[in-house]
Amino acid sequence: MLFLKKINYKDIDKEYEAIVKIPHNENGFENKYWNVSKEDFENEVIPNLLNNSKGIGLSKDRVPDSYFFLWNDQSIVGLFKIRHYLNDFLKQGPGHIGYTILKDYRGNGYATEGLKLAIEECKKLIKEDEIYLSSHKDNPSSLKVQIKCGAYLYGETEDEYLTRIKLRNDKNIHFGIRDLKRDDWSRIKKKTIKIENVKNEYFEGKICKLTMNEVEAPLTVNSPIGMVTIADNNYKNIIIAPKNDNWWLTVMFDDNNNLIESYFDITRLNNFYNQENPFFIDMKLDVCIPYNHNPSIMDEEELKELLDCGFITKEDFDMAYATANKIIKFYNANKEKYYNFIFECLKNN
Length: 349
Prior knowledge:
- This protein is of the alpha+beta class.
- Helices cover about 30% and strands about 40% of the residues.
- The two termini are about 45 Å apart.
């Protein structure tokens, strides 16, 4: 069972063992106590941190914060630090929550589940409607964790992405994330992929040919021309991921290489830090082009909902429509070139 527990004296042995394993500074999480002695941890660190959580003895540049260890049954697997409110400096970077998972326990989903638990603690400690977070740009897994837990991308600095999570997200709005290799899609049980780098007059990025050798079950969805099956055994995708644009294209083929449709996701961010498997954050708006049919803009109500609920700005909203209309205009003017390129991708890959 996974749970958060505030730092305390009863668990001092396991707390100390955990805190000295956390690096001094890793991916933006600063651990001041990485080399503290056991005696000082008990007699100085714990009393100070418990006082800090009550706002006792803080200097003017400090805010109250609470330390929570993340436990899995009898083992500590991570540490979460929650600041009760922010000053101007914290608003521009560190935010309300800092967290890390111990190295031996990474890759097991503890960061996502721990952040969900931390958000519940924030609802008890924080009066504001939103919590602020950040993630280093060289740590895309942290950004993914935050997005999965309901964060939206608010801004960025040279080194960090700045995100926020609404504590009262009544409509349960979440941004989607999709990676190039489709590791995010559990429906695919066995697949073959081939990826190449591309730079031409239209875009720079990557093209992935994905063959779904085996799927858990066929997937049928509603398209502008009615219900169509877009995933089944031996179906194929040509996935085009541009580096510096706000779209991501998936072209779908059946098991006989018949083209089903082209699907452009309008994106909030295309992240290429992991060159082997870049990913995007979805903006909800899409352009769907069934083969031999006209393009259609889809999910407009979802985009409007993002704007109305404060998850995107009016500039983001306008950018999404401008990107969608640019795609449609280009497609209508270059249909023959477009399909020649797509079928050549299928043939060569």
